[in-house]
User: What shape does this take?
Amino acid sequence: MFRISKDSPVHYITSVTHNRLPVFKTTKLKEVMCQALMEARNSANLLIFAYVIMPDHIHALIGSQRKPSEVLRYINRISGRRTINYLKNHSFESCLQKLRQASGRREYKYSLWDHHPNLKLISTENGLIEKANYIHLNPVRAGLVERAEDYRFSSVRCWQRRPLDDEPLLVDLDQLAWHR
Assistant: This one.
């Protein structure tokens, strides 16, 4: 069980696509991102408490004993690699050109994410709930849906204890030990 505290904070992550390119406009690319988050969760032993996948960014609340830089590295590296591979395999040449980067010392040709990710540590349950509400209302504020629960690529239904039968990504709320 994960108990949020000063010594065990939740990582609030915001990753924005390079040049705010709306890479995640299609259902399939959002599904690729969900699968990448599952893979990162399994590879790094992370807990995902809340998430939303917007057209040009993601938000997530992650529980982990790892350093913040490691959590970001797992999530951004795996999701970047899976998304770029999908774009290559399905001939999204225009999108790939917009993500093209000058080859650096690691000889990367494409970069999905902006290299200034935003990570905050949340150390209270009230802070966690506040950020989860912010995450879940993001599609409403962006005008993508009228009700948060109508946006498929968000954990809001899990928080409402009404997940879909084919929920794209289940979260680890059952692993969160709430203070009494």
